[in-house]
Recover the amino acids of this structure.
């Protein structure tokens, strides 16, 4: 078997093209759409994500503004900023970039954002609507993963689906969305860091959605130990030999890890003597190509569609505010 590679970039482009037309049609009603990103501090990964959001938003006709706060600002200032954006009629939707500084409580942000301006659908009420299959916006990454899955498998009814990872922003919403259909839901198993015999669950799965970030966690732990422990195994969590023949695989994870380590656990250096890093998923992509029916690559799978879903949510917020 040779797996179909699910090309997230092409899917994202298609969504963006449709969005551009729908945003233009909405703007004709005299209500321009604006997405505001709040960033506390200057995390480099978060900055890259902000730049990408801006490019994609502006490409579909959504105005984008970055509101940057210093990493040292008190939590109250973040709360004030969210309140101001909630009350500003020119702001359609907002996103608070993660991670926040340690001193700030992300849960406070979640409950403070007005439900109708919540571009990432993180407010508990928006999360709850996933549960009742009564939602117009969903967290962008789970929405992207589930959309790509539906594109690869028209009928999930009764299928054995395994979600690896149970975080509040990825794994749990994916499980809720998969279970949303009363009549045609798959049988969903959720595994996590405490799961025993992960391989057995993987082997049973006809549908596999993986969001653990395992290689990066191992690398981060090794770095944090001052590289004193044995060099970590950075290979993807899901091995090809454990995957069921014909499985459909959505790899959500992005592990930014060294391409190779020397015998001391130091990253092998590349050009300009910089460590050679690469982004990989949680699934042995090359290994499953001959076993799976379909698989998303990393990068180029779920990631590009996530941004498109964020912009879909922004348009949905605009519509909700205009029409109720
Ligand atoms: P998280 O750290 O909050 O949660 C990780 C989850 O994986 C937890 O439920 C944990 O129990 C589980 N886990 C960890 N190690 C495991 C193991 N060895 N076996 C089984 N389960 C294990 O992470 P998150 O925010 O949910 O993100 C998960 C991954 O998805 C990360 O790689 C992240 O970079 C990626 N991500 C991608 C996008 C995107 O747009 N593509 C967006 C968000 C997150």
């Amino acid at each position: 078997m040779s797996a179909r590679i699910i090309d997230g970039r092409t899917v994202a482009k298609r969504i963006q093209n449709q969005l551009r037309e729908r945003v233009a049609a909405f703007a004709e009603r005299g209500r321009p759409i604006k997405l505001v990103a709040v960033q506390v501090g200057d995390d480099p990964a978060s900055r890259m994500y902000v730049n990408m959001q801006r490019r994609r938003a502006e490409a579909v006709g959504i105005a984008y503004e970055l509101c940057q706060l210093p990493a040292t600002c008190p939590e109250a200032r973040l709360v004030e900023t969210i309140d101001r954006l909630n009350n500003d009629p020119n702001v359609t939707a907002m996103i608070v970039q993660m991670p926040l500084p340690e001193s700030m409580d992300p849960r406070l942000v979640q409950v403070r954002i007005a439900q109708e301006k919540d571009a990432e659908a993180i407010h508990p009420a928006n999360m709850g609507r996933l549960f009742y299959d009564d939602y117009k916006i969903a967290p962008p990454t789970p929405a992207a993963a589930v959309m790509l899955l539906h594109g690869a498998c028209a009928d999930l009814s009764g299928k054995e689906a395994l979600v690896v990872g149970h975080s509040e922003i990825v794994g749990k919403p994916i499980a809720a969305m998969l279970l949303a259909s009363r009549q045609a839901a798959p049988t969903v198993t959720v595994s996590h860091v405490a799961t025993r015999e992960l391989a057995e669950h993987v082997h049973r799965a006809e549908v596999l959605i993986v969001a653990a970030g395992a290689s990066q966690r191992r690398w981060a732990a090794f770095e944090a130990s001052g590289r004193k422990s044995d060099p970590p195994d950075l290979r993807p969590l899901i091995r090809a030999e454990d995957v069921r023949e014909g499985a459909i695989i959505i790899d959500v994870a992005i592990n930014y890890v060294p391409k190779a380590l020397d015998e001391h656990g130091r990253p092998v250096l590349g050009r300009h003597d910089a460590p050679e890093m690469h982004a990989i998923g949680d699934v042995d992509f090359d290994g499953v190509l001959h076993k799976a029916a379909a698989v998303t690559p990393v990068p180029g799978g779920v990631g590009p569609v996530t941004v498109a879903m964020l912009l879909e949510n922004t348009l949905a917020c605009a519509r909700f505010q205009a029409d109720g």
Notes: The first helix runs from residue 8 to 27. The radius of gyration is 20 Å.
